[in-house]
Design brief:
There is one protein chain. The chain has strands at residues 2-6, 9-11, 17-24, 32-38, 45-50, 57-59, 67-72, 77-82, 91-99, 102-105, 109-113. It is mainly beta and 115 residues long. The termini are far apart.
Amino acid sequence: AQLVESGGGLVQPGGSLRLSCAASGFGISSYGMRWYRQAPGKEHELVAFSTNTDGTTGYADSVKGRFTISRDDAKNTVYLQMNILRPEDTAMYYCHARDGPTRYWGQGTQVTVSS
């Protein structure tokens, strides 16, 4: 079982990116899905989550109104749409799946926001 992120890259401030997290070996429909990020010298930060029970989503205050998490259970993929990107959004972004004690992490995708 694994998670594979993609879609990161270099973008100018104010730009957009869409990250994807493709799961294999398990079905995300049974899992709560999250996006985390970690910038150099900073702690791991929860960016957004999506529950598998009632579709509830939530966001860190720093990204609220700019980022949107979504999931396509049929494609076994979770997305993070990131708009109005800021230099402080620069980080490695990780996908995470959790069902009780079972947890999976992706390898991360780098997002760099710079002019």
